[in-house]
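Submission sheet (multi-component)
Chains listed below:
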Amino acid sequence: MSYDILLLLIVLVPVLLSTTLPAVAKFSVSIRNFAALLLMLVPMVFLCILLPEVISGNTVKYVFEFPLGINFILQADIFATFTALASVLVSTVILIYSFEYIKHYENQNEYYFIVVLFLGSMMGIIFSANLIFIYIFWEMTALASWRLIGFFREKEYVRRANKAFLLTAAGALFMLVGFLIIAETAGSFDLDIIANAGITGGIVDLAIIFILIGIFTKSATFPLHSWLADAGIAPSPVTALLHAAVLVKIGVYVYGRLFSFVIIPSDSLRTAILVVIAVSAFVSGGIAFVEKDIKRVIAFSTISQLAFIFLGFVSGGKVAFAGAMLFILIHGLAKAGLFLCAGIIEHKVHTKDLDKMGGLLKYMPFTAVAFACCALSVMGIPPFAGFFSKFLVIIGSVMDGNVFTGFAFIICAAFTVLYIVRLFTKIFLGEERGDFKLLPKEKVFSPMVFSVIILAVLSLGFGLFFGDIFTIANLAANQMITI
Amino acid sequence: MNILLNVFIIIPLLAGVLLYFLPSKYNIVKIIMFLAAVSVNSFFSVFFYGREILFNSHLLFRLDLYFRYYGLNSFMMIVLGAAALLAAVYAVASMKKEKNTFMFYAFMLLALSFANGVLLTDNFIVLLLFWEALMIPMFGMIAAGKDKPVWTALKTLIISSVADLCLMFGVMLICAVGGSFMISQTNVDISQPGAVFAFIMMFIGAAAKAGAMPFHSWIPDASVKAPLPFMVFMVTAVEKVLSIYLLIRIVKDLFVIEIGSDISIYAMIFGVITLLVANMFAVYQKDFKKMLSYASIGQAGYMIVAVASLSVFGMVAALFHMTAHIVYKTCLFFVAGNIEKAEGSTEISGVKSNLRQTMPYTFMSFVLAGAAFAGVPFFFAFFSKEMIYASALSVNWAFYVCLSIGSLLSAVAILNWGIKLFYSKPKEKIIQEKEVPVFMFIPTIISALACLMFGIFNKVPHTLVSNVIGQVENEHSVIITVILISVSVLVLILAFINNVYTCKKRNDGLGFIAAALDKIKIDKLNENIKFDPYEIFIKAVTKFSNAMFNIDKGLNYFYDVTVPGSVNFVSESVKKAHTGNISVYLLWVILGIIFIFIIF
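Outcome: structure written.
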């Protein structure tokens, strides 16, 4: 099979075949679960086949031409393939976790259908090399997240799902206007043509601002972040998927794809973006330090960490870009781990209120260790992988001349340590603030605990073998610069 | 793979991990493994001393990393190895009945591995990696204390990470300015853009490791809560060695700074503040271990002043004093551990027997180490302190005066504790010997004898230190040197008179020094938790966070109430216009057409 067909299948298999999952469930729930897993594994295998090809410096492209220049173009380079692989990896672990978590709830067929569709849409955004198709897949993820956030269907849940959908859809409309301006200026929706056009000027900056509104809404950047913390009411695998693996990463990925090297924002706009993301990191870090809901703390932590990824892409240098690219993977793993651990805790103690926890280390030691590993990675403590990505992003920014922004982010990193330490302490250490003595003994080989252990091991493993993934990121940065 | 990497990093690391996961039925194997790993480390630190080896490894993190074994770090590794061995033997003897003993051993080995990593590496990123990774074993070792002092461990973790982030930023800046990640290839002129900021951040990060103020407040807490070998190995040895090593590298290799420049003066002031405030606090402590920990912070101040003087003489003095400090403070902590074992407490109210009679060897050890600590002539720290005085005097006499005041306070503190512990009236009339088991006693007496031997034969450590930094002569004349020594002796006599006066006039054991300190309300500052820099920091962060939380609440109100309310208002208004009357619709159409005409 040629690489371009492989690339097409990476997008189409999950998008199209996800619709069959409810039908498969008529035969057996187990087969449906297995099929859902297969729909995740197929793109992962294909991506693994594709990776050596793109690492060797080639770009794989699939083109299907439509009228009016709205061509369906999929393009795989190292950056796209690496990000896609990161998303599929985290999503697959989340899916395995869901097998146990979601089995007690209704609407399971819809859950699996939407989760796989979600991943397919993400693949579509990552590989699309045409602005209109980026927008189409972008809106597909908005629809998917709307269904998933409102999974429990109660009034408050639906309200918050609506809020998330309306905010991100409104942001997407701004983004569409930006895309139209870009296409008008460059003469095409195709990214290659736009890159070659070398467009600059006030109108381009205006377009970038419009697109940024969409990006910031999706990637929950202050002041457009409020839907993300509210989305914490969704089931834990969903929050992990939204906050760690797929949804919020879309925005930062699109920024990296469009604005790092293809369309260059003016210096003043770049400075403004740096200010916005630094403020976002500060505000969300501050809120995370005083929030009392376990999921909201992790959600605000996501908002804060997304700012670090933005910093890498906004800085404009090779090192920062490579750091941001690795941050997507490493933060995805660790944050998914934290959300899934939160799910296990919530399942057991039936509360999300940190003031009603404490001393849980004794009752759920495996979850605690996994949580600690993921937390250390998010904090950026070596040898966990999070240290390297954070270091690269900030040093990259400093090397690009953004010394004060780098310093601001160092303070944000200190905030990260504070709120994560507080979170861990409130959950696992200190006195017990509930009757936990009757909690069943924790089993390692349940899908839920096993999933978080995998994520914890990966958070450490990618640190210990950092050189290998850094080589890939470095190649990706070099490839992007040559665009 | 290079043997140095195996011996100094991999072996303790693997031994630590293995030891942690081995089941409890292999406890004897665990103890042997622990002692063997530390002994191997100590043996090879001496065996390789004097060689210069550069090597590359791809094993760690799969990155091409360079390591450099040479004079300075090889000396540091000997000091570290010796302290680790003494602490390990003491830990095995003193912690055998405690619950988290093996967790402590495992983390101690990890700490040894990481500390060696910091010393060996020639790469900034790896330096940060090992430096920051040390937080994990630090947390684990404190948490292994008797009452699981998690809050103290967390406080340590938070303070260390904030300081480490300063270092991290300094490293980032120096890499950006110097254009290299290799330590040996970096030599940045302080006048280059960004270099001053890089220097400040690195200096703060390195000095904070030694417990410089305001990053000190976890040390007194840990001294009470953590297992005693932690204070010896981590606080006394690892933290000081790494801090002084990096400070020397910063001023000697990484930056080009003129002696007497403003930045050097500010750095010296930073050191002076640390030594004065910490020694004042030390005087007031009611727990022997807390006193020692404050004194340890104060001694860091001396070393900072010496390094910041920027002269080679100052650096030799700092290194010499660091070694002396590790030797006598190790002994004093062992003395504290022995007393705690025998009496159950190191608080003055908890000591009931006449320790001079019940623990004669511990008493002798205290005398020897206490004399070195106070700077009594011909004891180990006497020479290093004199060198520090000389280097401070060559910059400005005010620094010298401050250092002398600091020495007076240290001498008062140790004399006061000597009298309280060994000469006060016993509350119990037990004369029965309470001396600790032999394996606790051996490290105590070895370190005590070292205080005397290295004092008498001070040429040995002085030569070793001079070999790694550079041969230097005292720049002051013989007369000045004699005056300096005389002043030091006078300071000691003053401290002695103060304590004699105390015995006769006051019952707090602090003499006229206390009266002077009372005037500046040091006791209030010491006792009130509100003045703990950590508490001030956490309070400020909480205030900021609450403000951010309220901003978010406001935003949520906007999205949840204002926006839907506005939409509802518009839609209700339009609904009102939607009357079903055809003439009204006609009016709307006409208005629409006019609107289009206006626009186009």
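Remark: The two ends of chain B are 78 Å apart (CA to CA).
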